[in-house]
Structures are given as structure tokens and as C-alpha cells.
Protein 1
Amino acid sequence: MPDIPILESSFPQLAPEQLRAALTGFLPKNATTAEKTAAVEAGLSSPIGQGLRAAIARWIVDEILPVDRLVPPTYLKWRPPVRHSMQFVIARLSPARLAPKIVEQLEISEKLSVEERLFRLIARVPGLQKLGQVIARNRHLRPALRTALARLENGIRDVEPDKIRRIIQEQLRTRLERYQVEIAPTILSEASVSAVLRFRWRNPASGRRERGVFKVLKPHIPDYFAEDMDYLHGLAQYFGERHHRYGFPAHLIPDTFRKVRRLLRHEVNFVREQKTLLDAAALYRDIPGVRVPRLIQPLCTPMVTALSEEPGIKVTNAAARFSKLGRTKIAERLIGALVAVPLLAVRIPISVAAPLAVLVSITVAAVILVQDWRNVHARSAGWLVAATILGIPLGLLLLTDGNQRLVKGALAIVIIAFSAYALVGRRPPELHSDKQVWLLISGFVAGVMGGAYGMNGPPLAIYGAMRRWTARHFRATLQGYFLPASVIGMIGYWVAGLWTREVTRYYLFSLVVVIPSIFAGRVLNRRMHNQVFLKFVHSGLILIGGTLLLQSVRS
């Protein structure tokens, strides 16, 4: 190992073109690539690690991947944030990941293009690969850079087939023999976090051998994923705090990193993806011309998704071969499948519907409290909110990991039974004053239902009905509860990664109906007799309970 104090003092003084020679001299003579990598890793972990990283970062952004060549003059103001982003990531990659990349850049030909060097540098760094895919959609980048970044869509090659086959064998074990699975020897395609292999299997339902594909989480992802999520979070925070230095809106750069982080989190969640495939198959089952790959559930695990093989080519490549009329028909079919069908679907997936309901609840509560804050039973609302906070984590657990069927069915039966008895019983349950036990039970169950289904209302409506609140007090007090409770619940959805762009889009669409409905509801609320109002409450609860029960039976 070279003399550490000399290296530590000399690196910062060197010009970019001198750094390659200095870094090469840092390595042991006549060493193998593995020995060089070990030496660099040791250096990065030593007392000179920070100085060495700073020198390497300057070498990369000034000589290996000069930002002036990567970012065209049209985007001159983007050069500083691109430069600082690259330095930020280099400073945070672990020595085990950074060392082999440095050695590779030293060993490859200096004549290699900037784009090819970039492609090699971000291999096995899914956060940067996904960022490159997002940036590649910008049509104003240099053509050579766009072409290189476009390779991140279908040109990644950073894992060996044997490693992917080994993961399949470890995950499926005896199922491979039971279903007579034959795995192809080569990789069909790769993405930033997964690789795809063809296979053949015996389908016990048909008795025939069928073709399928395995989508497998790459072996390095579990080791590197947390690190990638950390530096993407750090980049979002870094640029959020310093946006004024770059002259961009506060949210612009941080939102890009948050988007990449969210996309990565979704891509590694194979269980969520498998559920989405089942939902999509049900949604498009009766739509002509739309074919969804069939999930082969017996061969699926949290690291392996098995699908029927559907031959075809990318729609953008196919469209280029058609006439204008043919492209128009493809566009019409895409609009119908990707826009019209989801908007007209009977239901929204619960992972979208739950946070959507809470966002709408926040809007309704805020407007109503501005109108009628004097009618709020503050003590009741306070106890209900406190109990709800305790119930929300359990609800989120049910939504993300639990079996919702039994819980949903049980809650539905309780709601229907209570409201039916209140409507037809001779002595409907009544509370003449606030009872702390009932407040805690109602609030806790509301928290569970809100976290799991975005449906806090039924337990609260039951409590309000037992207290015989007037229509005005009912409306105002519930919204006094919904505003803080819904804000807390929405924070929970955000932390759990469930507040997505899809949720926000549905929410903005809903405002067209929600805002007029709030004011129409206030007019009706002020004209309604108390007994009639309570009958409407219980009838609505029975309808909600019936819907929940039907969903639990069908799920």
C-alpha cells in the first residue's frame, strides 16, 4: 500500500488529467484485477478514504464522464446539479461497490465513448439505472446520450444466467420436480432489478406442457437496495434544501429522485406486482384485443414471478411498421385499454382506493370545519382521534400484509347487525353522555378501518347515532375528527409508499364532484329532521356493511 500521508496530501492538488496516473500508481504493480479491486477497497476504507473519494469524484466528473459533454449547451443550467449529484453518489457508495467500478474505468480503453463509460459505471446500481431510464425520456438530450440511456430499458447485462437459475432452484425447490419445470440456459432480458428466463412446465389443470417466463430478483439487489434508497432519499433532501442555488423550483429536482425511489420500491415488491397482475387479468378479462400474461401462482415466491409467455414486440416498434391508419387503430386501442377501462371499472384496487378516500376526507373536513366549526363536540372528537391513532398501524398492517377477507367480513356483519337493530328494534341503543369506553372502542375500530380500507366513518356514525347528535352536530363533529385523523392516516400511507401518482390523479378527478357535493350536503343537512336523519345514517351503514360483506365473499 502506498504511503498514506503523502497520498492524502497529494490527491487534492492534482489536476483531473493527472488523477488517472496517480490512481494507477496507487495500485500494486503487476496485480490482477481482483488484487487491484481489493487494494482500492482497502484504500476507500482507510483513513484516506474521504480524500480518495473526493479525488475519484473529480476524476469521474471532469475526465471520465465530463459533465460538459453529457449535458448539452441547451441545458447549461443543469450542469451543476448533474455534477453535484454524481459527486454525492460517489461519496456514498460502499467501498465494495465503488472499488470494482474504479478499477474497471482505469483498465478500459481511454478511447471508449463517454456514453459507454457511463453505461458501465452504473451497472449493478439500480438507483442510477432507473434514474437514467427516467431521464432518457427527455427528447432534447444529445442523441448519443439518449441512445445510451435507452439501452437501460432493454440492454442491461449485469448478471450471469447461472446465478439466476440458482435463485429459482433455491426458491422453488421441490416444486420444480412436481411441475416438471425445465429452465432455459440463457437470460431472455434484464431490467434494473430483475432478469427474465424462459421455462416449460406441466400445467396440472390442462395436463399439457406450457411455456412460461420467470421474472427473478437479481442476487445483488437485496444487498444494495437499502443503500440505493438511502442515497436517493439523500439527493432529494440535498436538492430540496439547496434549490435556490440552482434556480429551479423547490420541488423539481427532489420530485425526480422521489419518483425514482418510488419506482424502485414498487419494482422489488414482487408480491404487490403479482396481485396487480391478478387484478389486471380480472379487469381486462372481457375486453377484446387485450391479453394479460397469466400468473402461474404455484411457481411464484416473493423473489420469483412466474407468468405465461406472451409472444410479441414493443408497441412502439410495432407501430413504426404500420400505416397511418394502422397506427391510429393502435392508439385507439391503447386509449381504450389504458384510460377508458380503468376509469369505467366497477372498482379501484384497495391500495389506491384507501388513500384516495382519505385525501377526499381531508378536503371535505377542511371545508366543513370552515363553515360550521361552532357545532363541533370538541371533547368527543378529541377522544376519537386519540383512539384512532392507535388503530391506524394495525389497519396499515392488514392492508399491506394481512388477510383482509375475514376482518372485512366480520366488520361488515357488526355494522349491519347494529344498524338493523337500531332501525327495527323497540329500544335502539342510546348514550345520554360521552362514555370514554365507547369513545375508545369506536375510535380504535375507526383507525383500523381507516388504515385498512380508507373507511373510518361507520364506527363513528354508530357512536354519533347512539349519542343522538343532531344533524348539524353530527356533520361538524365527525369532520372535526376526520381532519386530524385523516392527515395522520395520509402520513401513514405516504410512509408505506401507498400515496402514488395514481392516487393523486384520481383525487384531482374527484374534486369536480366533491366540492359541489359539500355545499349541497350542507343545505340538505340544515333542512333534515333529527329522526329522519338517523334513519338515513343507519340505512347508509347497512348499505356500506353489505358492500363490505360482498367484497369479502368475492375476494
Protein 2
Amino acid sequence: MKNVSFSGGGRETKGAVDAEHLVDGKYSIKDLVDINRLRTLFEDFSKTTGFTTGFLSYPGLEILIATGWRDACTKYHRACPASMEACKESNIYLTHCLKNLKELSIKPCGNGLVDGATPVIIRGKHLACVSTGQVLLEPPDWAYFEMQAIKYGYDVKLYLAAIKELPVVTEKQLKQALRYLGNLTAFIAEEGLNALYVRMSAELIREENKRRKKSEQALRKSEARYQALVEQAPDGLFVIDSQGGRFGFIDVNSATCQMFGYSREELLRLSISDVVMTEETLRASSEMTIAKSGESVFTQWQLLRKDGSVFFGEVRAREISEGRIQGFIRDITECKRLEREVLEIGGHEVRRIGQELHDDICQWLAGTSMLAAALAKDLAKESPANAPRAQEIEDYTKHTLEALRRVTHGLVPAVFDEGLVGALRELAANVEEILNIRCRCEFRYEVRVRDQNTILHLYRIAQEAISNAVRHGGAKEVTLLLLPNKDRFSMMIRDDGCGISQPLPQTSGMGLRTMRYRAGSIGATLEICPGAKGGTEVVCTIPLKPEECPLNGLA
């Protein structure tokens, strides 16, 4: 990002930062966060939501990441020394709030925009701050911005065009974005700190193993040090017995006990199948079998506490010796909630845009069509030679109106009252008409999904899968299938495109990540694999509630 600055910013070295702003007296934010990885996440966030992001070290305020910054700021406000003074005043105010560890600070700048910032606190240390903004909380006052352009010597037309590009959001949305960015950054920093602890622990273990041959006393000291580090680790750590296929716990740390609500003695009498949701038992056992083979496993499970409550756990596991698998568990329930909030914000904006297109633009086009029809009628009497032109205007307007209605129907589906089958059939019809490909439905059974939210997520998964098949796979034919299997069913989207590489890349696109999140939010699993006869198959499998069984055959 060029031509951006933050008051007081500059490059900082670790030696220039006192221990007050270092975790354990030695780790700065750059030690804990993979800046390139976080930049990718922030860029995706900016593209998805339209919000800008800024990530700065503290107290040096070195700009580490800046994404989505608007032309109104970079080309005008911050490029002009006079208007830059207003930017500096806003920065000074936000910086003062950050020093006081204010959770969220929002400040309208002197140039008419609104910015906000929030501190990143890790283990009680203020290591960084996250900012977003360059937005408006109400529609722009064009007279104000025109006067401002004249005042600072901007090109009025280009400057007002840049102002027009600014998103108009509510204060609640701005706070949600700030809170999400701050929590996401803190989560990744905590993960980085844990990785440092784990590497430090592993290094100690390796050193002690070298000394094992020298004396049993050195070995006992090594084990004592390792146990102390494990007990101090904020994430849950477990060791399971992989022999016999039971996968029973043979060691756990205090964090694991606190996470599940069991005592250590109680957990050591349980196995993996006792602490995962019933529908995930088979998958969890399969993944532990993979870890037993020597591969590292990184997965997410829905886990059960002693009191019956459910939480989402991020699990990393691998075999550490023959018959023993070591794993780490992190409670990511809050992260899942934040992901859901971002998805809901995006869905709300899509529905709002679709509704505005329907209620405003469509009505204007309908009125234009009626006027054109009336004009054609008048011309047929008074100027027959010009009547066909008026008829053409009416025809073009009708075609445009129908196309816009199809688009708004995809943004705001209105067929969910007809159930999942009706929604998917309507989707297939729209796909054939809009994308000009063949989209078949093979539904031999009626699936009585009653939850509208579940139908919406399945609809969006199918919609995204079809879009990917056409855009990336060049598919000419797509088939939608519903496949029953006792107390669950699978929705399959099969295409005849060029297929997908295996295994899928870890840094998959926003569409695939959104599909996986939608599936997880309704308790479903998502598999993406090459088709048996070419192309790609996307399979979403979801448990059925008792009242949704049995499946009824369709005629």
C-alpha cells in the first residue's frame, strides 16, 4: 500500500521496545504473527466486506499491514499536506485511546470520514493495534465534500467520485468489523505464542533425550521440565493409546481437564469416542488412524463436556512413538461465532441489495416499459414510421426487467417455503436460464428439512458449487442429487468440467472456505473430490432430525 502513514509510525526494533510491551519480556507481535498469512486474511476481509484494515505494532506504530485503503484517503486527504493535518489529529486521538487500552475507539476525522481502532492484548501485554474505517455513517453531504475539494485544491469531479466509492455503514457494523479484526488478530497471535511454547518444549525434549544415555537422573529432570511446560500451556494437550483402535486417553494436562470439565482420573478412563458428538465418532476414529500411520492431522471436532454442553475444538495430532498419539486441542467456539457473524453481515448486505434492486430499479424499468408501450400506441396513429422504434424500446426494457428480476431472485430466494427440493429445482431453472448450461435435478426422495436456515445454507452451498463448476471448471452440465442414507442424507453437485486437483490446497479460496463454514454451521460435512467419470463432485452430508425421517418417495 503506497502513500499511507500513521502519526508517530516508523520501523521499530525489539531492542527499542521495553519489556512492558513484550510477552515474556522478549516476544513482540512480529514474533507471534505470520504477517503474510494475516495480510491474506485481511485482504479477503476487505474484498468481502468493503472495510479497510490497518495492522500496526505498538508502541512504535509501524504499519505492518494495510488493505483496501480508499482513494479518498490515499490520493487526496493524505496526499495534501493541509488535509493531512486532520488525519493526524484523528490518529492522535485514536492513539491516545489505545494507550488507555480502550476496547474500541471510533472517531470522525476532520475530513468527514470515520475511523476506528482497537488494541491487541496478548497475555496482558499491549503488542499491536488494528484499525478500520475510511467509511461514512450516513449518506455523504455532497455540498460539504465539494467545498472541501475546492478548499484543498482537489479535482472536484474525481474527488467526489472517490467519495461516492466510500461504503456507508452503521456504527454497529463498524464496531462489529473492529471487534472481529481485533479478535481474529489476537487469536492468531495466541496461536503463534503457543507454537513458540511448543517448539521450545520440543527443543527441551530433544536436548534431554541426548542426555538420557548419561544418567537416569538427567532423564527424570527432563521429564519434570517437560511436564511443567505442558501444564503451563494454555491449550489442551493429550496423549492417547492408538493400539486396539479404542484411542483411550493415557495422559492429559490441566487445560484439557478444564476444557472438558472432567478430573484427570475421569478423563483417563475415557476414549476419543466418549468426548466427540455421536455423528462425528466415525470421522474422529478415522483421523486418529491417519495420525497412527505417521501423518500429521489438523481437524475440527464438535466436542462434549461433562455437563453435556457442546463446543468446537481445533485438534492437531500425530504419532510420537509406537502406539502413542499426542494431540493439542483449542476451544474455537468464539472464533466460530465470529465467523458466523461475518457471514450473516455479508448475507444481510446481499439481501438488502437484492431487495433494493427489486423495489427500486425494477419499478422504474416497469414504468419505462409502460411509457414505451403508450408511446408506441400513439405513434402508430400519428407517425407509423416511428412506431417500431418505440416498440423496440418497450421490448428491450422488458428483457432488461426480466433479467434483473432473475438476478434479484438469486440474491433473495423466495422459494424456501416449498422445501429443499423446491428451492433446488428453482435454482436449477435459474442456472439454465442465466448461465446457459444444462442443470438437471435427480430427486427420487423428498427430504423434509423443516429448518429454513438449514435450507438456506444448503441452497447457498449448491449455488457456490455450480458457480465454481462453470467459472473454474468450464462445466456445460451440472446434476443436483439428493441421496438418502438412514438417518442422514447427502446433497451432491456433480459437473462435467475439467475437475479439481487433489489434495485441495490449504489456502483455498473464499468460496470454498465459505462452503465449508456453511456446512459446519448446520452440523454437516463437506467433501470435494474428482468425479468417477471426470469433473468434480461436491457432497454435503447432514444428519436428519427424527421428525424429518423417514424419507418419502417422489413420483
Protein 3
Amino acid sequence: MSLRLLMMLPCLLAVQFLSLPQALAGSQVSHQAAYARSQVDFGVDFYIPSDSATDQQTADELRQVQDHGFDHVNLSSWTWTLPTAGSPLRHRVDVILSWCDTHGLGVWLLHNIQYDASNPSDLDSMVADPVSYARPYVKDWIDALKGHPCVRGVILGNEVGPGVPDDLRMTPHYRQAFVTWLQSRYSTIADLNRNWDTAYGSFGEVSAPTKTSPGWTDYHEFAQVQFGQFYGKVFDELFKPALGATLGYASKTNDDPFLYRHCPSATVQCWDDLVANYPMWAEKALTDCDPRPAFNSELHLYHDGYQYYPSIEMTRYRYFMDLLNGERMNSSFNWGDWKKPPIAAIDAATPATLAEVHRLAPVLASLAKEETMARTAVLVSEPVFDASTATIADRPVLPANLVRTAGSSGSLADSDVPPLEEAYADMASTGRPWRFILDEDLSSQAKQLDTLVVPGFERLPSASIAGLIALPKRVTVIWAGPWPTSDEYGHPLSRAALSALESRCQKLPDINAASSRLIDPLMPKSDREIVDVTYSWWSSTRGGYSFPVKYPKIEIRRAHVITGTDVVAVINNTHDPASFPIGELVKRGAAVHLSDASDNAAVDTLKPLDLKPYDIRIVLIKSGPQRPVAGTN
């Protein structure tokens, strides 16, 4: 391996890095303009200093942020903290923006305008006239931000979501919007009654469906539409004309790719994971299924008040995994609250970690792009997604790192594992690039597919069935798990639909069996282990607690980057040390380390690669064997 090639590698890979937003151009996403920034953008949540802080003290804080290696600050604001002209707050905001303009530190505004279904009066005002409702809360911020090159985007709402009113009589504008939406969806009230199992005489009689009724499917989708329309109107009519359409615009909600399909005005997918060790399948589903950049704007890697058992290893793991999963933006909560001895130790290690991540960003991005362009995919329908996300708060506590061999039934209760979590664990253990794909993208993505794995689930939307049946015959469709019994409304599937689906799919008992057919020939089968890794969580009812998440013990990501050269990420997803026979991937040729202290050192392929807990090693392999075609054995 020549030194010249190593020095050229980041520049060569930067071309791929910058093309990442176009990787999913075929997905059914419609938004007005792409977020212009393509680089890594890691930052911190930053509370604006108090009135007692001097300008120099504010500048010193910002310099410390930048010296840590962070790229931006999120300025936190509420509807009662507005930088009105001539106010002390406006002065402090001007100081921050001017300093960031001069020194190249980015600024995001995180402004807490809450879409709140629990307040009928506010919700109805938001629906009736979103712009008039929001204007008093945003006009001062628009005036402050305008003309500052450091401004990268605006995030509206904090941990908001598409809630619904319990009683439509309390929200007349919301009710009328719902009725109008239903009339555009159904030709007659008889069509609605057929899906909802109701007997309404007219659309004017419709009341709010309950969560257990068939009509909830439509009510939930309308709530997503209304959520997207509220924030979209505020962005399109207030912020974009003043600040430009190519900045980042988003609402801080959850990592739901179906929700963001109803937010076309957002140029960034913004979410809040609450806990730094959030399951990686959810992040991958978000980034695989939408070309817009993903932004975790409140990442709790370390914080004095939120003890999620962080570590230096977990911090590095999370920064690396964000990029490997295609998420190149995050903000750590909260600058200035990292003082307790264990937290301070992690904070002290952060500059070196960020320097390493920035240096390897093009390499990590090339690995992420390989995943988003994979010709092997796992189907995500909304019932499967909802079932996968709804179980975290109810998961039992299990000992960490219980092991079963991938492809076997094992000793754990696989029936209790959320379907998309199991899909990630088993597919990521194959050593082969793969991705998630939404059911609504089947027709547009058909040309980019060779193999589609469908997690078995009792409910399957009618449109999903139609999309699966319509796929070209050359696409192998593997049904993995229980056969569906009902559509999205809970109605039994017709014999004709089931027969057509059965004739189109290869039926296998579970995802384990499906993934066993897709193993990369270079992946040592003896190293395909699925383990339960204990993660931490918090809820208002349970407080802090641990829950198990399935992962491949060792995960391999690989991308062909230059003729005869592959980049490989060897990932230890567990709390324990591990090793991997790297020589199995090299076979012939040579390899060098690109990550951590052993940069550019030759890899001893005769020895296993030793991995610390949550370790990720990046290796460059030169003149390795030809890679197999995805979807073949």
C-alpha cells in the first residue's frame, strides 16, 4: 500500500461523500429544496448566556465549543424568550451570531413552538391560520438571524408529535379539515363506512375514531398531514423568504420515516433520541428511506443530570455509528453540564474523538452510501414500524450479551423481539450491504432491487400487497415470518390477495432463515452471533431502567472505493471485548489501519483483530478478492 494512495483517499472519497443526498433519489419524497450543507455537522445544545455574562465571557464559551472540535451550536429558545429589538437578549444573540460569523462556527435555532393537541384552543388556531399563529413568536428571531452566514437552519418544536384531539367538537377548524381530507380520500360515505365498520349517514356525522377502531388508521395519517402542514406553512411563508430555502428546516420530533413523508417543507429530518444508546435500527430506517439529511438534535452522550451509564467507548461508538448509518448531524445535550468526574472524563476525551471522526468522515460516508445503494433491502410497512417502536417502554430486563448463533432459533424468545430490531440484527450479521425500504417506495425503487426481505406481521396494508405483487419477477421476494391475516384497517385479507402474495413470495419461517441465505462468502460463519446488549432508558412511569436490544456481536460494513481497494469497518456492538479474524476478509493482498492510534500501520492478517468494548476499526484492504453480487450466495 503506497503512502501516496493513502494521502489521496480522503479526497477521492469526498466525491462520494458529497453525493450522499442523491443516493435515494428514487424514493417518494417531495420537498422544495435540499439542505445545502453536506459536511459533518456535530455540535452542542447551547443555552444563551444570562444578562450577567459579558461579551467576552460569551465569546470565551463559544471558543471552547469550537476548540472541542464541535461544528455548531443550537441556540435554545422558547416563546417567551424572544430577541426583540434593543433588548438585552437581542444584544447577546447579536454577539453570538457575529462571533460565529467571524470564526466559522455554525448556528441552528431550536425554537420551542409546540404543536400541542392537548390544548384544543391552540391546536384549532394552528389549523385555522398557522402563519398568523406563529408570526408573533418568530418575527424577532427572523430579524436577528437574517444576513448572518453562520446560520445553518431552524428547528421548530421540542419533542413534538402529531397528536390528535379527543373530542372534535372542541376543535371546529381541525374537525372541518379532517372531514375535507376524508372527502378527498373516499368517494362516498359508504366507502368510509366499509373501512371503518361504521354506519354514518354523511361525512358531517363523523366523530374522532378511537385507537382500537379501524378508523384510527385514517385519523393517525391525517394527524401526520396536519402536523407537517402547520410547520410547513411557517417555514415556507415566514422563514424561507427571509433566510433562504436552502437552509436546514425541521421539527424536532421522533425518528419516524412515515411522519416525515408528510413534512415536505422540511429540508432536514430532525429527531431527539432521548438516550445516546438508542437502537441503531431506528436511525438506519430513517436515513435509508429518505434522502434528506438526518439530525439528532438532542443527543445525551454525557450529561450531569441524565445518567445513562455513558463511557468514552460508547461516545466514540455513537459518533462513528451516526456516520456509518448516514446521519452526519447531531447536537450533544447540554454544553456546560458535563462537570461530574465521570462525565468530565468523557468530555475530556471528546476533542480527540471528534478529530478522528472528522478525519475519517469521507471514509465513513462511503460506507454509509454503500448501504443506501444496496440491492438487498428489508421492507418497512407502517404497522411493522409502529410495532417495532412501541415496545421499548415495555421491554423486560434481561442479562446482557446472551448469545445465540445467527440463523438458529436460539434460547431467547425471538417472538418478543420487535420485527425491525430483529431484521437489523440478522441482516447486519451477514457482512453484506443492505437497507430498509418503505412500502410506498416499491414501485420507484424496483430497478434498484435484487432481493427484498419482508418481515412477517399480522397486518399488511393493501397498497403494500399491490406493490409486492407488481415487483418485477427478477426481484426475489422472501417472506420471513408469520403470514399476514388482515389489512391496515384490521379487515381479513381476501383469498385472492393471499393467493397472489403467496405465489410471489418465497416463504421462510423468520428473518434468521432469510439472512442465512444472504451471507457474504467472506463473512466467517463462526463469527455470526446475535447477542442481547443491555441499553438504558427512562420513562415517567418506570424511571431509569435497562432493556435488551438484539445486535450482531460483530458487524462488518464494506465499500469498494477505488479500483482494487475496499474500506472495511469492523464493529463491536457489545459491552465486552471481542476479536475478529480479519484475515478472512483480506484473503490475499494487504491491509492497513485507518482508525485510532494505529493509523496507516499494516494489519497483521495472521492474527485476530482485537476489539475493545464498542470498538470500531476502519481498515483499508488493497487487492482483495472480487466482491460477490448482492443477493447471491
Protein 4
Amino acid sequence: MMDCIYSLHFKFQSITTIGESAHTLTLVHDFRLLRITLFSCRGVLGSKRRYSAVPVLNLAPIATAMSRYADLSRDELIARLEAVDTPGASSSQQTLPSRRRYDPNTHRNGRPRIEKPFDFTVQPTRHIALLLTYHGWPYSGLAIQSDPNLTTVEGELLKALEKTHLIEHGKGFEGCSYSRCGRTDRGVSGEGQVVDLYVRSCRKGGKGWRASEKEEVVVENQDVEAAEGVEGPDGKKPTKPKKEPETEFSYPRLLNGVLPPSIRVVAWSPVDEDFNSRFSCTYRHYKYPFHLDSSLDLSKMREAAESLVGEHDFRNFCKLDGSKQIENHSRRVVKAYFDEEEAEGMVVFNLIGTAFLWHQVRHVIAALFLVGRGLEDVALIKQLLDTEKNPSKPTYNMGDPLPLTLQECGYPEPLDWRIGGYDGPFASLSSEEQKSVWPKAMAGRDKLERELVAMKQHSEFRTWQIGGALRTLQKIMPEPEGEDRKGVVSYPVGGGEVILTGKYKKVMDRQRGETPEVVNRKWKEAKERRVGAAAAAGVESAGVKDEE
């Protein structure tokens, strides 16, 4: 059939449509796009082709209605549209029907969308470890708090896990056997935090895998029976098993898609059921960078830090908490050293130990600053570690939390980290074998690296901009050489913070706090009083109800 051409001419526009069998006339004007089925062509008679055009839609009323807009100017057309959109406009003004707005809660036909609840009980799970990095300053610590107004790293992680349906919604960390390696406080960052938990899996089997709550018991040799059509014990032929996915979920990519930029899941690793990120850990590595100026003697700080190595009672290097009822404050430090090459323009203090007390690293670095400043002798560390002569801690400021970072968590067998969904062994493979599975094991690595590089560069730009005020001040008002602030003693506490005092008092001559035994006993007594008062109030309220 030959193509048929139909033309329609308006005063202000000419439109031509070419079609076959069923034709569409496209009307374009300043208001909207209309597509109208115009004619339907039929019939082939003998050797001669005849066409009868049957109008499907009478265009006369439309042409008449549209012609009244032909002579309107642009401003008049805009005014007419504004009048149409104005609430309360008369029906005569509303000549153009309003376009239907998108509603995510309804289908296009107007029926409400019914979102099916996610049934987590039919999902298999597996035990994995996650490698977390996070900035400490935006959060009130790592651990989730009972106060919902406090934003924490674990609080954000929990929301991301629930949003991606990797754990069951509403059951919290208790419902997925969650554990963390080390608890970092408000303002402290993490580069190598390790957590472990049970998450949803898309595979069947593997390290740390367990079946769903509703999954049927698998009959032995079911795969063979299904392939051969052998009937099972119940007289029914077993269904053919579904093809298992070759790869697991890419857990870092799922979580990073919903986590804030200040928290990133760098990698995941399959782990056995008996793995615990806290109790399986053999050492924890903390770093504390600081700027070295002429007022600090790094050689004295190194000499004093040597006394930290070994197992000691660190009660004088921590903050006591009676609610924890800690009786043993002995901890073992494996290494304590300073690195001048790791960070440009800074020195990094490294402290590696099997476990740490609350605020232990921040108390240690504060004492070392006093030694480096020359305000305390190198023997200060040994004196504070001698708990027989000094059973309670003298009062002194601890280091600022901003520079402190949990660098690494060590385990007897290194975890087999990957970022993609590859589910087999990776670290133990040869270089050639790793290349063959690299696309699956490291899928998404390049994208994450680009994001992190961009964040680092942005922070460097901000650092340079913030330094602008300092550059301007030093340029227009330089400090005279040899200026000495007599009568003022200053010493750093980390994070750029400095304490100024008119008279310095030696640490061992300061007021002492309570011993751990006294702190624990007072907390127990206070708890017993609270419990007793609550019980008495309950009995009294019950008596009032009985009288009523």
C-alpha cells in the first residue's frame, strides 16, 4: 500500500503527517503536544488501488477552538495560562485541561500502589565482616545510643542495613548478632574498624551461611532425584533446584549507596560462625598525628614512650566508669613509637595493644606532650604506671579527640577482604588466579576510589581556604622576632588546641581522684538506692489502687 499524505493547515501553523494504514496527526502549538488519529485507509480493488478515507475524529470543533488562540500575542498567551492555573478560576477560563501530576502512591490508572512487605524470614543469611571507615567529628561516637537525637556511626549503619533489607527491620543489632572490634568515642575516627553480623544472602551455602527460618529441610541427594525424576518419601517428585547465582551481594556497594559520605564500607569478608570481631581480635592499632614545633622535644617523648611497652596497670591513664564495674585495669602494649615520615608536616604517634581502657590513648598522648614540652620529666610515665605508690590518678587534661584514629584491627588469620560479590577465596590465590577473578572480587573498587580521592581533594581545598585568614594576618601584622610572652606557660593537647596557664603545677603534685575500688563501690550503692526507691514507689502505688 502506498503511503498516503494528509495535510492540515491552521492560520498559525502547518503540520504534515505521513503514515500507512492508520495515520496520526501531530498538532504542535505553544501550549502542549497533541497526537490525534486522523484517518484509517482501507481497500485494494483489482489492479487499481483505491483508498477510502474514513475520518475517525471530527477535527472541525478542534480547529475552531484552537483558532481563537492564533491572534494572541505571547504575553496574552502567558496571561491566559496563568488564569487557567489560578485557583478559583471560572469554568469558562479553564479551557485547557491540567496535566495529571505523578503520584508515587498510585498507578497510572488511578489504583493505589500496594507495596508488599519484605518477608525476611524466607531469606537465607550469612556471617560476614565489614571494614568500616568513618569521620569522627560529625558523630556522637561509634556506638548507637538510647537517645534518638544523638547521631552515631552505628545508628547510620543500622538505618542503611534496614533500608537495603540486609537485616530484618525492627530487630536492631540484636537480631543479626552484631559485634564491633573497638568502641571509639565522640570525635574519634576510624580507618580500620571491623564489625561482624549476619546479613541477607542471595546464595545457598558457603562460609558462615545458614538457611532461612521457613526453608524446608533439604532431602539428601535431592539434586540427583530431581534430575532423574525419582519420587521422594512423600510420593511427590522433588522440584528442580534453582540455578544459584555465581556471586554474592556486593555489600559495600549496597550500603555505600545509602550511607552518608562520612561513613564508608570499604570491604567485606566471609567469616566462620565462631568469628567475633571483638573477642577474636589480637591487637588494635591507634594513631595520633600532631604538628611538631620547636617547643616539643621529640627525643624525650620517644624515651618516655618506651616505658609504655609491656603489661601494666593503666588506671592512671583512663577515665573511670563505675557502671562498667571494671576491676582489672591491666593492659598490654605491644608497640609505642613515633613516625615522622607518614604524614607530611606532622608526626604520628602509634600505639598498638591487645586492648585499651576508656580514653587510654588520649591520656597517654597528653602525658607525652607534657614531657616533650619540658614541663615534666621523662619519668612521669613510669610514675603514673606505679599504682602501688600512686593508686589513684592525678587530675590532668587528656588529648583532643580529633586526631585520634583506630587504624587497624588485627586477627590471628587475616580476613579475606573484597568489595565485589565474588564468594571464593581471594587473598590465598596466586597473582595469576587473582587476576582471573579480579572483575568479580573488586567490582566497584575504582568508583569508590574516585569518590574518596575527590573527598580528600575537597578537604585540601578547604584547608587552603581556611588558612587564608592566617596568611593574611601574618602578612599584614607579622610577629616580631624574639618575642617572649613572659609569665605565660603553654602546652599542646592535640588537635591544634593549646592550654595557657600563668603557673604550671607538676602532675604528681596535683589533687588525686578516687581509686577504682571506691568508684565501683559508690556506683553499686547508688544503684541499690535507686532500685530500693523504685520498689518502694511501686508498692505504694499498688496500695493506692487497692484502696480505690
